[in-house]
Structures are given as structure tokens and as C-alpha cells.
């Protein structure tokens, strides 16, 4: 979204507690990708409307989104996956300091490893799935874990506008890794919008939030 619009919208968001602002500072200083403020606030508002009881999050990072969701929904249980050791440990640290941490279970490992997949499915079914991990694997995450999504469930995917790079001709992007990632995100968006079993809307908030519900 436009930087001035983001700043304007963020000026209204003043109710984050000290732990959340500390986590935001840590993420900024240590280059940990967490949801942008307008994005997480939109996600939390959508969750208030949906009122899921169990959420699967793919990509814990330091636990920011999980704790924001747990703070929003008093009865929710969250299963979240993180493969990076340092981020996993930091998430456990923050969960231990939060009154909502006991409702969040972190599974350490790669979300596409079979042992992790089996464990995740064992905790299902889920009312909502939040995808915010390796962007090049979004379609695989979606296909694998929607098998454990309830009939009235919803899938939320972050970063689908990827800093506006989805608007660019990827062949003109110099860095190969970035070029390939943009191609994969564009492909995911197109695939998602044409999915026969889900209806999707992409919201231009934060870094782009896709909201997919079963047909």
C-alpha cells in the first residue's frame, strides 16, 4: 500500500501492549519478517468476524502473529510451525511472557516434512489457516493443510502483493532469486483466484492479504 496511507492508518492503531511493541522493535532490529501493522489488524478484525476456535499458522517467526491472534480471540487455540532454531527459541521466550502463550503450541520443523505434517493433522481439524512462511511454497502449504480445514473454514495468506513487485515485469528484476520468487507469488495468486473449491479476495492491506473461503 502507499506509504502515506499506511502511516495514516497506523496513526489510529494505539492499543498494542508493551510486549507487542517490544516484539515489533525486536523484529525491526533483527530483520525478522512479521506482519505489517495494518495487515495484522485487518487479520484480527476478520478473525473476530469468523470467531475460529482452532487456527493453524504456518510460519511462527518470533510468535508475534500467533500472540496477536490469541489476544484477539479469548477461546482460540493456535498450532504454529517454525523451522528456524533461533526464531523458535525467541517465540518460546515471548510465549512464556504472555498470558495467552498457553493457548499457542509451537511445532519445530519444516512444515513440509512428513513428521510435521502428521503432527499438524493430528491436532485438526482447523477453522482457519494462516500462511506466512516460505513464499515459494505457498501452494504446497495450501494443498497439504486445507485437508484439515473445516467446511466453513477460511485460509488467510500474507505477502501476496510482495511490496508491489507483483505489478512488475519479473523478467526485468535483476536478482535471480527475487525474480523467481515474484514469479511464484504471481502464480500462486492466479492459481488461488481460479481455485475450484475456494473463493478468494485479495485485500491491499499490509503486504497484501488473501482471504479464501470454501465454495
Automatic annotation (TrEMBL):
EC number(s) from the headed UniProt entry: 2.1.1.-
Keywords, sorted A to Z: Magnesium, Metal-binding, Methyltransferase, S-adenosyl-L-methionine, Transferase, tRNA processing
Protein residues bound to S-adenosyl-L-methionine: 35, 65, 82, 110-111, 132
Gene Ontology molecular function, alphabetical: magnesium ion binding; O-methyltransferase activity; S-adenosylmethionine-dependent methyltransferase activity; tRNA (uridine) methyltransferase activity
Catalytic activity: 5-hydroxyuridine(34) in tRNA + S-adenosyl-L-methionine = 5-methoxyuridine(34) in tRNA + S-adenosyl-L-homocysteine + H(+)
Domain of life: Bacteria
One Pfam family linked to the record: Methyltransf_3
InterPro entries noted in UniProt: Cation-dep_OMT, SAM-dependent_MTases_sf, SAM_O-MeTrfase, TrmR_methyltr
Binding site for Mg(2+): 132, 158-159
CDD domains for the chain: AdoMet_MTases (cd02440)
Gene Ontology terms describing biological process: tRNA methylation
Keyword presence, Kinase: no
Role this protein plays: Catalyzes the methylation of 5-hydroxyuridine (ho5U) to form 5-methoxyuridine (mo5U) at position 34 in tRNAs.
Self-association state and partner proteins as the record states: Homodimer.
Similarity comment text for this entry: Belongs to the class I-like SAM-binding methyltransferase superfamily. Cation-dependent O-methyltransferase family.
Protein's UniProt name: tRNA 5-hydroxyuridine methyltransferase
Source organism (scientific name): Heyndrickxia ginsengihumi
Organismal lineage: Bacteria, Bacillati, Bacillota, Bacilli, Bacillales
Amino acid at each position: 500500500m502507499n506509504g502515506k496511507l499506511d502511516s495514516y492508518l497506523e496513526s489510529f492503531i494505539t492499543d498494542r501492549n508493551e510486549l507487542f511493541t517490544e516484539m515489533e522493535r525486536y523484529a525491526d532490529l533483527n530483520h525478522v519478517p512479521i506482519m505489517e501493522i495494518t495487515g495484522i489488524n485487518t487479520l484480527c478484525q476478520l478473525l473476530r468476524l469468523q470467531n475460529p476456535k482452532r487456527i493453524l499458522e504456518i510460519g511462527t517467526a518470533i510468535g508475534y502473529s500467533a500472540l496477536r491472534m490469541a489476544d484477539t480471540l479469548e477461546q482460540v487455540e493456535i498450532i504454529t510451525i517454525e523451522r528456524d532454531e533461533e526464531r523458535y527459541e525467541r517465540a518460546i521466550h515471548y510465549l512464556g511472557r504472555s498470558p495467552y502463550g498457553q493457548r499457542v503450541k509451537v511445532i519445530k520443523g519444516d512444515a513440509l516434512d512428513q513428521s510435521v505434517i502428521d503432527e499438524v493433522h493430528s491436532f485438526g481439524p482447523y477453522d482457519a489457516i494462516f500462511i506466512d512462511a516460505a513464499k515459494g511454497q505457498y501452494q504446497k502449504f495450501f494443498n497439504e493443510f486445507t485437508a484439515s480445514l473445516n467446511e466453513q473454514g477460511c485460509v488467510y495468506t500474507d505477502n501476496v502483493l510482495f511490496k508491489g513487485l507483483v505489478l512488475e515485469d519479473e523478467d526485468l528484476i535483476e536478482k535471480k532469486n527475487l525474480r523467481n520468487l515474484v514469479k511464484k507469488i504471481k502464480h500462486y495468486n492466479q492459481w488461488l483466484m481460479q481455485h475450484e473449491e475456494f473463493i478468494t479476495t485479495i485485500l491491499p492491506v499490509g503486504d497484501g492479504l488473501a482471504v479464501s473461503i470454501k465454495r
